Amino acid sequence: MTEPSNSKVIVEAEGIVKVLGTAPNEIKVLKGIDLELQTGELTLMMGPSGSGKTTLLSILGCILSPTQGQLTVAGLKTQNMSKEQLANLRRKHVGFVFQSYNLVPTLSAVENVMLALDLRDINGPGAYDQAAEALESVGLGHRINAMPSKMSGGEKQRVSIARALAGSPSVILADEPTAALDAKNGMAVMELLAQVAQDTRRAVLAVTHDHRTLQFADRIITIDDGRIAGSERPKISGKAVEMAAH
Ligand SMILES: Nc1ncnc2c1ncn2[C@@H]1O[C@H](COP(=O)(O)OP(=O)(O)O)[C@@H](O)[C@H]1O
Ligand SMILES: [Mg+2]
């Protein structure tokens, strides 16, 4: 098995359990998840609705705390961190991409990215250039002044990927980033995420339901009822081709 020699584990989850809701209606949504994300890799996650994918992404991105288990991000154990320390860790190391883009409608593409930079304390004269560069890197150099209402779904998702990349986080977490897009735009967005993951300083994890996008995965994880039901490295085993045919 060959792996990029300089890839490294950037997120490590061990025995993650998450209980949601309040007694007597508590549900054990995650039932003991072990998962490592490596830089230089696109991991795609599949699983039925309600299986715990969004909950897991929220925990890996330090939005939710696990009920049990350990999470290490960029070498830092999160267990005893305060809310503020967790927020700092998230700002520095994690970028999110959502199904519904979550762009600010009154801000242009470049302003949306600058807002994300500002949240990471990157402002001043260099911020505009940095935001424009991020948009160029996702193929939107010609659309930096466009308003969200004038952009296609594919373009909006590219802006949201540029926004996630702003500040160079080491982890990108994307929750069904192609679900609101037609097949062609969905494939293009997933291909872009695969490119984003080729950066050896960064790991990308994306939830998908579209088997055709699996061809871009370095690793495919299946989650079922709060547990990891399968993990494949298709580029090594040839499995993606087989799965994409279904
Ligand atoms: N805040 C919450 N309170 C109680 N149950 C929740 C909450 N959020 C999610 N759940 C439940 O947790 C389970 C997993 O949800 P989720 O992680 O969103 O799954 P997925 O993203 O795979 O569809 C579902 O049964 C859902 O109803
Ligand atoms: Mg979900």
Automatic annotation (TrEMBL):
Ranges of residues in domain ABC transporter: 11-243
Q: Which GO terms describe its cellular component?
A: membrane protein complex
Entry annotated with the keyword rRNA-binding: no
Q: Which Gene3D superfamilies match?
A: P-loop containing nucleotide triphosphate hydrolases
Q: Which UniProt keywords apply?
A: ATP-binding, Cell inner membrane, Cell membrane, Membrane, Nucleotide-binding, Translocase, Transport
Query: What is a GO molecular function of this protein?
Result: ATP binding
Q: Which top-level group of life is the source organism from?
A: Bacteria
Q: Which family does it belong to?
A: Belongs to the ABC transporter superfamily. Macrolide exporter (TC 3.A.1.122) family.
What is the protein name stated in its UniProt record? Putative ABC transport system ATP-binding protein
